[in-house]
Design brief:
Blueprint: H1 15-21, H2 27-40, H3 54-64, E1 67-71, E2 78-82, E3 93-94
Antiparallel strand pairs: 1-2, 1-3
């Protein structure tokens, strides 16, 4: 038997989401997995809000002076690259954004 305490968390869902989830055998496991995956993919700066505070923006501007947001030539996802480490690779640069 598990010694972990469990808390119940509820949320509101529109009818289309409720209907889409009806066929999922274990909705609790599905929701837990989806939340954990989303938390693992949350921006470390804004924590998923999509907005930087003025202080975070100041730090980002300083950081972006030596870093670029580039498209990976293999998977085509955008990622941060240190300019000092990428001098030998051709780059597809995208302008640094102030929000996530």
């Amino acid at each position: 038997m598990s010694t972990q305490a469990h808390n119940v968390i509820t949320f509101k869902a529109d009818e289309s989401l409720v209907q889409a989830m009806r066929a999922i055998p274990n909705r609790s496991d599905f929701i837990r997995s989806a939340i954990l995956a989303a938390l693992d993919s949350t921006c470390p700066l804004c924590h998923g809000t999509g907005i930087l505070t003025p202080e975070q923006r100041r730090h980002w501007v300083s950081f972006s002076e030596a870093h670029d947001v580039e498209e990976c030539g293999d998977c085509h996802e955008w990622h941060l690259v240190c300019r000092h480490e990428s001098k030998t690779r051709p780059r597809k640069r995208r302008g640094a954004k102030a929000s996530c």
